[in-house]
Specification:
Number of helices: 7
Number of domains: 1
Structural class: mainly alpha
Strand content: 5-15%
Shape: globular
């Protein structure tokens, strides 16, 4: 067993993918409480959040291109489900904030077809119902308790509700929009989590 923190470091391989690396630390996703043995970690050099001026370091397009190509190959090779392509903050929201709000999850979905995201037409409730036949109706009002329950269904550890909410927003509704990165649950968050559960966990 090799004790190194990730499998891939953009731009070099660190640990062979067939070995266990200790990239996730104490984390969980869905029914799994031990992520290291069942996942592949990719590290990208980025300064993250600057607390002095409350800014986020952008990612370079070359980094995203390499991530896109690398993960596309891994998805095809290992048959990874879209909603299982997640960031450190998704699997350990009480400890981590990386890759942060500026990591372009939507671009990776649109340009490389990897990860979970909603298509433009899926921002319509009628489309979600027709395509995926969700088992629950679309929430009509912001409800933190209901939202957190959906987060747990989707895969998040909801022990720390606030950090789980923020992790979700960094990945989805506040992505590329740092000004929206907070613990508030709005109609937008309610719609996204309902639609994502319908799309990927139906």
């Amino acid at each position: 067993m090799i004790w190194i923190s990730s499998h891939v470091g953009i731009l070099e391989n660190v640990v062979p993918e067939t070995f266990v690396s200790f990239h996730s630390g104490r984390s969980s996703w869905g029914n799994y409480s031990q992520i290291n043995p069942i996942s592949i970690g990719i590290e990208i050099v980025n300064f993250g959040h600057n607390e002095i001026d409350d800014s986020w370091d952008p990612f370079f397009q070359e980094q995203i291109r390499i991530v896109g190509l690398t993960v596309t190959r891994m998805v095809n090779q290992y048959k990874v489900l879209p909603h299982n392509i997640v960031g450190h903050s998704d699997i350990a929201p009480n400890r981590k904030t990386d890759p942060g709000v500026m990591f372009p999850w939507g671009q990776l979905y649109k340009d490389y077809g990897i990860g979970a995201w909603l298509d433009s037409d899926e921002m319509n409730e009628t489309v979600i119902i027709a395509k995926y036949r969700p088992s629950t109706p679309c929430p009509r009002i912001p409800d933190q308790k209901l939202f957190v329950n959906y987060l747990g269904i989707y895969g998040y550890n909801i022990t720390d509700e606030v950090q789980a909410i923020k992790a979700f927003k960094a990945h989805f509704t506040a992505n590329q929009k740092p000004e929206l990165y907070n613990q508030n649950v709005t109609h937008l968050e309610m719609y996204w989590i309902w639609a994502l559960v319908a799309k990927y966990l139906h």
